[in-house]
Amino acid sequence: MVNWLSRANKQVHGRLLTVVVVLLILVISSFLALFLHSLFQRILWEQASASRLHFGTVLEVKATHEYFIRRMAEITGPEYRLVRSDRPAGQLEAMLRAVPAGSARSVEVPGLINPATLMMGAPAPAAGHHATASHIVRFAIFERAYWGTAPQGVRSVFLAADGSEAFVTPALPGALALSGPLVADVVSNWAKALSNRSREAQRKTPAGSPLWVGPYQGTIEQGEILSCFLPVHDAAGNLVAYAATAIPARVLMSGASVAGALHAASGARAMFFDRRGHLLYQGSDASWLRTEGLGERVARELDGSQQGVAYWFEQGSLMIGNMGRDRDWRAAYAYPLSLALADHGAALAAALLLYGLGFAGVLTGADFVRRRVLMPMQRNAQRIEDSERFNRTVMQTAPVGLRVVRTADGHVRAENALAAQWLPLDTSVAGRPWLDAMLARQGAGSARLELQVPSGQGGPRDVLVVGRHTRFEGEEVLLCAIHDVTDEREANRALARARQLADEACAAKSQFLAAMSHEIRTPLYGMLGTLELLSLTALAHGQREMLATIQSSSQVLLQILDDLLDYSRAEAGQMELDAVPFDPVELLESAVRAQAPIALRKGLALTAYPEAGLPCLIGDPVRVRQIIGNLLGNALKFTSDGHVIVRLQRAAQSAAPAAAGRIGILLEVADTGPGISPEVQARLFEPFMQADATTARRFGGSGLGLSICRRLAALMGGSIAVASEPGKGSVFRVVLMLSEGAPRRPVEPVLPPVAVLSEDDDIRDNAIDSLRALGCRAVACRGPAPEPGMVLFVATRHIEAIPAGYVGVVVARADGPAEPQPFAGGWLVSAYHQGGILRAFCKAAGMTPVSAPPVAAPIDPTPQLGLEILVVDDHPYNRLLMQQQLERLGCRPTLATSGEEGLAAYRRHKFDVVLTDVHMPGMDGYELSRRLRAEGATLPVVGLTASIAQGEAERCLEAGMNRYLPKPILLGDLVECLRAVLPAHAALVPPAAGTAAPAHIEDNVAGLALLERTMREDFEQLSAAAGKGEFNAIRRHAHRMRGAMAHVGDGEEIVELCRELELGAARALEVVQAHVDHLALYLAAYFAGPESDSDGREGSQDAARRKWPDTI
Questions:
Q1: For the whole prediction, is pTM greater than 0.90?
Q2: Same domain, 351 and 339
């Protein structure tokens, strides 16, 4: 059916296009026909107008000459008498007698007649010729009076009837040269012609009407001539003479009139006929016309015309006939069609061109419509037909069930065999038909329904039905896709069981790693603390060397544990980055100074090349320093001789495309170590990977450093790569994308000129560039000082002689002090401290450094501040520990258990500082800070938090706090914070970095008991909340426990588990319960303490179960 309709549509479209094309061609042809008709009418009108005007002018000339002839006949007739005397006639007669026969003479009577020519034929006039002379006199006098000066070429003739004489005026100069016989012949022939013409016209011409004769060729003058004449009779009625005019045909046809000019311009050929059809005149330009029978055709056409004008075609020309009112003369004008085409060729060509263009446009348009409209329509129709056929094929061959159901009444419009097999029409869900259930579940145009359908092959079949509203053949339908998901559901259940087993295995691994880390770190912290206290006592030299070895080994072990924890955090996706401003140059110098002793011990040249003019950056300086420390430590570890070079500079655009507000920083560490093979390079950044099996035995380490560096670089939007060849050393390159901070300000605003002395060209050039970037005028040292006041900067290990002329000498060494120290002849400073080097320049030149650090007298590592401090924390142990730290610093702490209690204490007493936990039930630290600011409090408020998450620092500052301190809080950090928020105490020097609480928690029995009791209470409430699914209570108690353990500075695994529970990382109850069980195990292990036996982990857990029987 569809195929037949498609073919029918094709035929209809083709015929319709043909009809349209034919109609358009007919319209264009009609316009052309109208144009041609209009053009022909214009040609006809132009030629008819020109011919009528010309013929009217010719008739006027004819009438003028006929009037002259009639008047002449009257004057020369017998009735007319001259008023004047006959004396002139006598004189003229005497002249006539004096002219011999067969001759011609000029005759002139001044004042009476125009000059004339008298031609005498034979015989001579008789004695009575006086009468003829009288006629001539009257003829000549009237001719002069009528014409004045006759038109050029027109002559008046008085011819004796017997051909004896002829009087012509104006004179014929050529007649005087004729011979006698010829003159007689001219006169005689002329008289015979007029006599013959007169006899022919007697029957058809009314009496008294002038007669016309011609055309004939003139004997004396060239050209065709027409003559108009009348016979002259005497009183007796005898024919005496003829009065005539000789008119050149050219004068009659054109003359000097406008009509003649128009006729000549029109190009028409003129012919004149008398009433008898006799040809009077045919121009030389019309000689191509055949005149046989033409006079009769002209007479026939004009006689049938009412207006005296007729048109017809003859001999390839347009013929226009004209006739005067007296119907005497008739004219035929022939207008060649070739001339018409030539005159109007431009218009005709334009019309034909437009017609051709229109015709071509119609055909082109028809082809365009056929190709761009009809053929696409036909292709679309074919595609629709193919698509419908294909859709039906797809429906029948699809591996899923498809069913189209009309929503109005549930009628099935189409379905395939799988749909009928998997979902029978009578299937019901919860007691109602499946279609009703689908429509009830529909939302946003689609619906999903999963149900079980009885199967004849055993158990029920799981069927998933996905429906969506659409239109099918003009009706609203529901398209249902039916899937048999029985196997998929079985696979999902198996996958869930496998995932549960994998989670349990992963949790067991994490539990084991955390427990082992805790078991190792707990005695290690005690050992490090004891070693630190031991180093403060008096020891022999050998004992101090052994102590240093123990401390170094302990630090390596601690670094391995830290790497393991960092790797665990990275694997779990819990590693977060801080965003604080820092100076990359100072960070690099600090890291290099920390590793410089290793380079000195091994005899390696350690050089740092920070790019001059690097701006301050915003990022995580701790993690950036960790990357530098790992790469630099590896380079120093594996390099036995040679050098290690560290470069810090902006990355090239190709290596680090700039992002909005971020720049690429390139860190490069190059060494002259053993190099790395390509096989090892491919796996170098994998966890626990080292160069070969002997590496761990020779150099130690966990093999996690480079893996952690790669993860940290990726977190900072960068990358890490290595270039190395065995035996040629290695180059590690790290690109980090960090936000750009404020430009670095010069350490010293005014610096003396410096000459750099070094045996290494790279070191010298880099030092010069760096100093110039800092505003110092630096040059290479070539000998004595080139100018007064210049400082010599020695950046080399071996000095043979100090050139003369320098005001001071600064020696930079790897083991030099950070602050310049005087030595013999100059100043000694660290080669890895830019600020110290610049201050050394100032001191060497006798200037006072602007940025020199203040010199303070030695004070006690734990200064007595004497401050009134309000401590607000909901956890008892946190309050106890903070109280002990503040009392050690000589402060008087006031403790509050909640934000409300802290606000009330502020209103009762005056404090110098408020230290508040930010996360507390009820009024938290943020709200407390806002309340204090609302009441006009100006004292510093410091927030205490167990973990500064992304954006939490900004929240503290927005709440009105001055600073925040992350837990655990060491004495050095606490003193530094108090000094920052209290400018009056800025001169106080904090204790050395890393100074912890006055006593470890295991040494503080009362504190341990309090911590254990509060942790047990919180854990019991946390466990109860987990059993009830109260997630808000879970987060609240998890936060309290995390804050307490973070304040202790120990138990990282407990802190991480509490953090996961607090942030709601897992909302499923079974996963929450698993976290609670793991937390119970860690708590039991942590508080096992002295009960841990030497048998290992199992003994410790047994003691924990005895100590926490209700939680394990």
A1: no
A2: no
